[in-house]
Amino acid sequence: MPFRTDHISHFKTLASIAVPRPARALAWILLLGMAGSIAFLLLVPWVQTSTGTGTVIALDPRDRVQNVTALVPGRVEQWFVTDGSRVRKGDPIARISDNDPGLISRLRAERAQADAEIAATRRAMGVAQRDVGRMGQLYSEGLSPRRDLELAQIKVEDYGAKVAKGLADRNRLDIDISRQSVQIVRAPRNGRILRILGGDTATMVKEGEILATFAPEEAVRVVELYVDGRDVPLIYPGRPVRLEFEGWPAIQFSGWPSVAMGMFDGQVRAIDVSASSNGLFRILVEQRRGGRPWPKEPFVRLGAKVRGWVMMDTVTSGYELWRLLNDFPLQYPAGAIDGTLGKAATGDGNAK
Predict the structure, then answer these.
(1) C-beta atoms surrounding 327 within 10 Å
(2) What class has domain 65-97+183-216?
(3) What is the pLDDT of residues 21-42, one digit of tens each?
């Protein structure tokens, strides 16, 4: 016999049982939460990013940490700096004394001898040239054989070769004198001495041996980031980048860059055409014009660690969640397949 609801009044205990209010409230909360989550995933935009880590470097290779080397072999006679010393361009760093103190005087004596030999050879060549003129006149008049004229010409050429050899020897001596005379190693630019590596008067140094490491100041800084090769096809010069410098307080929301705090703006300057030894691709990021200025030294020094987010296209939050769950690459925008992506930023094509 089917159960009839109008007979429930006969079951007083069953009629007195009702759904608890907390359960009803929880059901409504879950229902509204699911509806809100679906609306959030479908309507809220999300900025895709390509994340990378790297360091702060100097754009000009001359502004990077470099080695100060010995210009001549010898012993370090005197140090003018210590670790951490500030130097200006041309300031002395070290003086090197040659093992043979009379070497420069002997080289100068050899040069004087070479000058005398060159002058004597030129005078002899002048006399030989006059002989060629006389022999040529006698040969034209039939008073001298052709062989005498040719011998006179050969003598002139022989003197010319001796003059050329003497000039080459003198140039070699000038180079040796110049090298031996430059026994004071000077700072190439304004900067700071990081570390002294050379020895003292008891230690021999060779030509080209490292004496100290030097870091120039006032360098134009850029950031090198290493990103996954899966994202590199979508990165082109001009792409905006958000940067978080090591030791600088920041809060980053990857999908909503407008609410991030403590971040700094940059833009892609260049991209390596091949992968680095770590399997990632290096991109250079420069400061974005009109953006928040990067921290200056000593707050952010050369070599400081940096974390960066290259700003890509905007998609829905639901698509981004689906992409992450499936480990798919970033969204390919229009123009990525036919090669027109980024032409406006790089100046290629007819884009204005």
Answers:
(1) 7
(2) mainly beta
(3) 787 788 888 888 888 888 877 8
